Queue: 4 jobs
Job 1
Amino acid sequence: MANENIRVVLVEPTHPGNIGATARAMANMGLRRLYLVSPKAFPTEDAYARAAGANWVLDEAVVTESLDQAIADCDFLIATTARSRAVDWPSLSPKEAAAKVVEASNAGQVGLLFGRESRGLKNDEIDRCQFLVHIPSDEEFSSLNLASAVLLMAYEMRMLTRQVVPAEPPVEAEYQPANDRQMQGFYRHLETTLSDIDFIKATSSTKLMRKIIRVFNRSRLSVEEVNILRGILSTIQQRRQ
């Protein structure tokens, strides 16, 4: 596992103590790249107190104003959620998700997204991810502390790296996965084109577009593939004009 390629992204955390506890959990499992998207308060004394000495994680934390800034160069993203969604998304257990993260970290930048303490991640934030991970907690009390969720995922990843596993075949040199910035540009281009040819309507496009995005997210397109698809879309638009 390439730890330096794995980032933990907390989206709009409201409690500084949870940020500190997350830093401690990350340090326990050998992770150090913490990204904070619009935290309510940071840095704070409470965060450092709850970090229990894992100050380097907080010192190196990257604070961004938007999720775009936090994950633009990531080519593999996993979101955590505690509730079901209207559009089914490919879901994994924590152990399955950990295996995906470990594998992907050896090839590029990986982001683990954790949502707000009060309401988790929004649908459009989940749409950025290839997979969802659901931690199976008790149905009568399913809300999991933010730092606990981070610790559980980091633990599963660490346990995998302690096992002896067969070496994966080498990745083809020409394959370069598209990052989030490139994928979002493609999705905007795709939606515009589908609207131009009246395949989707402005009043009812959201759910259909989410399903289309899910198809491409599963595929993990390369930079070359994204460029080819955008070339096709540009040709369609030119012919229609």
Job 2
Amino acid sequence: MFCDSHCHPFDLLEHLGEDELESCLKGTACAASSWNRQQFEYHESLAKKALDPPLLLCFAVHPQLPAYLMRKDENSNEKNSIKEVLLPLLESLAREKRLDAVGETGFDLFNQEYRQTEKIQDEIFACHLDIALNYGLPMVIHARRAMHKIFSHAKKLNKLPAVIFHSWPGSVGEAESLLRRGVNAFFSFGSAIIKRKESQRSCAFLPAETLLFETDAPYMPLKGKAFSSWADLPFIYKAATELREEAGSPVNSLEELETRCKANFLMAFPGQ
């Protein structure tokens, strides 16, 4: 069984019909991320269909959302939606035990547009972290050019049941430093391990018990594809197997990696 630690089934509907999506999903354990009520309720409806393996539910305000809302017309009703709608919704979902994880949340300082909202991202992340701590939930973290911010929260992150780094952006050394600080961290890799050298090194050398894999469907397509889906997982696992085999790292066969990552997925999302 392949496991997908981060995907967006609602957004994948743009590329696949609902029947095709559900058919593609069968036999894959995955954690579905959403940032508004419509997305979450669709994912929840999928989860209630008694899928085997189950679909896990994640919710958070994406760190790119403040910048997106700043582009909107000043009179838009969406301007205050984060504080007035989305954060209260996150709190209620956690309180009602409808969540498997808080995420994806974090920081995105990739360009000037996102850096302009850094202070707002700080406030939103602090709120997400408090909710995760209060309700004992794992967090799924998005961090682009922002690892320094993650380290500044390490003392609180190490109190969470698990921290899953979506599309791990850091180095082997940074990952090891988080683990030494007591963070129960899992490092998730997608199609970037086929082309990005730093991701390849991390995937090859990090302890097998910290590895997860993902599609970020539909947003992380393999070369030559228009979108990503769960059909990409065998290729991602195969690439990871080859990297670890070449590096001489433990757990370097496809069967071993699949078994190990299934166990990791269960540990990363312990409330399932």
Job 3
Amino acid sequence: MNRPIIGFAGLTHLGIISSVAAAAKGCQVIGFHEDKSLVKLLNQGNLPVEEPGLSDLFSKHKNRIIFSVEPSALNDCDLVYIAADVPTNDRGESDLAPIRRIIDTTIAVMKGDALLVVLCQVPPGYTRTLPLSPQRLYYQVETLIFGRAVERALYPERFIIGCANPELPLPPPLSIYLKSFGCPILPMRYESAELAKISINMCLVASVSVANIMAEICEHIGADWSEVVPALRLDQRIGQYSYINPGLGISGGNLERDLATVLRLSEAHGTDASPVSAWLLNSHHRKNWPFKTLERMVLKGKPEASIAVLGLAYKENTHSTKNSPALVLIEQLSACKVTVYDPVVPVTVAGDHVIGAASALDAVNGAEALVIITPWPEFKKIRPTDIKSRMKGRVVIDPYRMLDAGEVEAAGLDYATLGMPPVTAKR
């Protein structure tokens, strides 16, 4: 058969990225969402998500995409993905009710031989319960990484596909579409595929937790974690792509959701998941690093100090602030004057008590301390001498090493980063 017509039901971050990637592969794409204002924006060419390369890719291939508020538009599709983001609460619990509504709506309008693929993340056992013939029902592990979503959508490492019977060949619409990406396809039973996504994230959390624990020790014994990292990357058991850069705990929502799922499954079945509880405790501990460092270097002597905060997103190249360390810090600085700049996220998400700035250096004006809490690439271009000329104080807290420690010290500023002891400039 020719390239299938692909539908995407649910046009949140995952659905938008996935639909544009499908169009880039030469498929006709129909995107459905019940929010009229969102669909209007998309049809006007306005994308509500921020991702590197997305605008250009969309402009190039938008002639192959139709966005609609009418579920009946999906009737033309050979294959429909359920691709809405799954909301989670502060305990990492998923709200699956909106996903089920989209699924029921989609099944009601699909043509008789069309396939349904659940792309959004659901707990193990969910796909098998859906009211559709197993021959038409599949689950696919999503590979979305905020800030790298376009790259991941166009060049996945592999496809993990949940099936009723993984011994049978995939039906042509799904097989043809997946093979157009030129990567391995791994069929497995529904529950194995659902658990595979959680298992991948567990491995990531383990690596991040090791990095955070050891980096914190470095800060107290005179070691530098950045010197240790190359040795780990050259170890084949760990590897060059490992998540071993220290950070400010686990953020974004997806990893937290998977850890919460594992804890619930462990409790329900009497298994031991105590390492997961320990990872969560360590994550909470590391989220407090910016405030504890500020407290030690500035706030003990001046609790109402003026603080500049660069970044609100939970990481670079995304608009998402889910469990963002920046918001945690700003809440802890309620007694301070806080000025904030983020290149994408509006300052209003941080509350009414903060002041927005038009640029990074504008945020620094008159500050007694600077915290660079989101590693946006543009922050690497800031010159420490410019910071020094604008600041009232002399403390720079830069967990992700956006600035060169030597240059900061040479500019006469004190410097703190993850994974090494603080540097005090000569007085």
Job 4
Amino acid sequence: MSAGQRFTQVDAFTEQAFSGNPAAVCLLRSPADPAWMQQVAREMNLAETAFLVRQDDGFDLRWFTPSIEVDLCGHATLASAHVLWEEQELGPEATARFHTRSGLLTASREHDLIWMDFPATPAEPAQPPPELKAGLAATTRYVGRTKFDYLVEVESESAVRALAPDLVQLNRLPVRGVIVTAQSGHTEYDFVSRFFAPAAGVPEDPVTGSAHCALGPYWGAKLKKSRMVGYQASPRGGTVMIQLAQDRVLLGGRAVTVLRGELLH
């Protein structure tokens, strides 16, 4: 990749800079070597770095953590859509179309709110392995497994916030990460969650859009709701709005640009 590649860093699922989940976005002039993309993601040292290449009917989109390429990422998709509109790569009323390892994903704008159309990844009940029990050391109400992660409901919002998991144990699980959730004790949110993914190089992800592809169906069934608001209770924190639509989940959030730069290598 030649020098002079621009990148933008965006805080996603937040209205305020220095909160939510930061992602780097690189709009490439042509496809890049995956090894180079992985090196850039390691250098950025964010939960995710997104790489886009324009196509005739949208953009090819790939996501890399500092350690691996992943199949689905919400906050870096939100950040990518935000950058495309902000830098006028798309018209203000245009729909962003992303071709990804999880199929076609789209994003549209509603004033300053961005809605993304993602596949639902519902959990199926599962027996908790010893590493999960040891890693969380929490009283669980439900353990399930999705296409990517374990989903664990614990007894209360305070239990979610107080978790100090053993990441060495969680790193041994054969999944991308572990979603821990509880019903919210506050009226502005339906549920809270946290997400730990040491095996993917992300000890705790600040706000995980793709986790809400499982959290939405789970809490929708429990609360008998199709529209919900989730709060990810990481130290940075962030809000994800949810609309259930059969086998799809619409994820809503805002984003703030915090940094622009240029890669020299």
